[in-house]
Amino acid sequence: MDKPAHRTLAGVVVPDTPIVDAAIEHARQHCAPYLFNHVVRSWLFAARLGQLQNVVHDEEVLAVGTLLHDITLNESFAGPRRFEVEGADLARHFAAERGFDRRRAQLIWDSVALNSTPSIALYKESEVALATAGICFDVIGLQYDVIPAAEVSRIIAEFPRMQIKRQFRRCFCHIASTRPETSYDNFIRDFGERFVEGYRAPSVVDLVDAAPFAE
């Protein structure tokens, strides 16, 4: 695979290729403004973490997977599966249509499907791990001390946070209240249990006890 051309965005050197440009535009079209800024920041943080930690990775796969990781996270989400899986299918199709081979497209699927499951994603291929690290950096400050503060400030200045904490809460609670069956085994459950009246997730203990076997 040829080494891609590069450009600088918010002080971070990133690949400058047609599919990266297409992913940026696709994210812009499918994400609310605050969410678009989040996915771009996540990508930039992911790329910078990879550079600072000398992680060898496919820059285009990292870009596309991170930029498209939240294209189904919105208040019109209708399931039927959890939003990460629905989004992963769309992102993989996006990549395959533009010439990515099966392995690269699958890495993008994994990056999107596992983006909110760092206990698994951080131990997968470098592209998946970096995507998750960049997303977690932006959402909860994971590895916050790795990227110099001035670089973080520049990225946020160019792609402001736009009250993301409040916006996330509203969106997560909407999914928990309208599609609770998609939230029981992911982080949205926490928002449902704390903020959504009447929300009640099933217990895995009960599921195990009710399994249709004699012992």
Largest sheet: 2 strands, antiparallel
Helix content: 55-70%
| First-to-last CA distance | 53 Å
What is the total tally of β strands?
2
Major sheet: arrangement of strands: 1-2
* Radius of gyration over all CA atoms, rounded: 18 Å
Globular, elongated, flat, extended or rod-shaped: what is the shape? globular
Q: How many individual helices?
A: 11
- Beta content comes to under 5%
Q: Which consecutive residue ranges, at least 5 long each, have pLDDT under 50?
A: none
Overall mean pLDDT: 95
> Which structural class matches the secondary elements?
mainly alpha
Order of helices and strands: EEHHHHHHHHHHH
Structure commentary:
Helix 4 packs antiparallel against helix 5 (102-113). This protein has a two-stranded antiparallel ribbon with strand order 1-2. The model has no long low-confidence stretch (mean pLDDT 95). By secondary structure, the chain is mainly alpha-helical. It has helices at residues 18-30, 33-52, 59-67, 83-97, 102-113, 118-121, 126-140, 149-158, 164-178, 188-195, 204-209; strands spanning 6-9, 12-15.
Keyphrases for this structure?
globular; 11 helices; single chain; mainly alpha; 215 residues
Outline the fold blueprint.
Blueprint: E1 6-9, E2 12-15, H1 18-30, H2 33-52, H3 59-67, H4 83-97, H5 102-113, H6 118-121, H7 126-140, H8 149-158, H9 164-178, H10 188-195, H11 204-209
Helix pairs in contact: 1-2, 1-3, 2-3, 2-7, 3-5, 3-7, 4-5, 5-7, 9-10
Short précis:
The protein has 11 helices and 2 strands.
